[in-house]
Amino acid sequence: MKYRRIPSRRLFRPGAGSVIVEFALVMPLFMAFLYALTVASMWAIGGGIVQQVAHEAAREYAVTADPSAAQQLARTYLGRWAYVFIDPSSLRVSVGRSGDRAYAVVTAVPRIQKAFFYTMPELRRASSCTMEYRFRRPGEFL
């Protein structure tokens, strides 16, 4: 049995290091893109949470007509998982009434505030709903 000789590959052939150089050039750009995507996603998720909390606070005020209960409910909701996306110490909740509508305005600062040279805007969301007594006594509003 005769063994066939396998041709040896040269370890340092021309262009062998170009892949490493290209990787070194592209990797920082890719990591910057991933960071920007993460920051934008966290800001968007935080905005969705703040919007939901504003709606829940307006609903609570519409049912109870108690501003402290509505503010406490908003702080409870934001205290569960929202601290990952927003700074809990920056939370401001205001509830009130305008005619037969209850409204809530929730303002918070995102957890990550800087994305390179861009400062992420604060999250301010508002919501309103009809006061509950309007449904309990509809005859008064005809």
Tally of separate helices: 3
Q: Mean pLDDT, as a whole number?
A: 85
The total domain count is 1
> Which value, in Å, is the CA radius of gyration?
28 Å
Structural class: alpha+beta
In whole angstroms, the N-to-C terminal distance is 105 Å
Number of strands: 5
Shape category: rod-shaped
What are the secondary-structure elements, in order, as H or E? Answer: HHEEEEEH
Major β-sheet strand ordering = 1-2-5
Question: Per DSSP, what share of the residues sits in E-state strands of 2 or more residues?
Answer: 15-25%
**Biggest beta sheet attributes:** 3 strands, antiparallel
Unreliable stretches covering 5 or more consecutive residues: none
Helical proportion, percent range: 40-55%
Condensed summary:
With 142 residues, the chain is α+β, with helices and mostly antiparallel strands. It has helices at 18-64, 67-78, 133-136; strands spanning 86-98, 101-110, 114-115, 118-119, 123-130.
Written overview of the protein:
With 142 residues, the protein is of the alpha+beta class. 44% of the residues lie in helices and 25% in strands. A hairpin with a 2-residue loop joins strand 3 and strand 4. The longest helix has 47 residues. The mean pLDDT is 85.
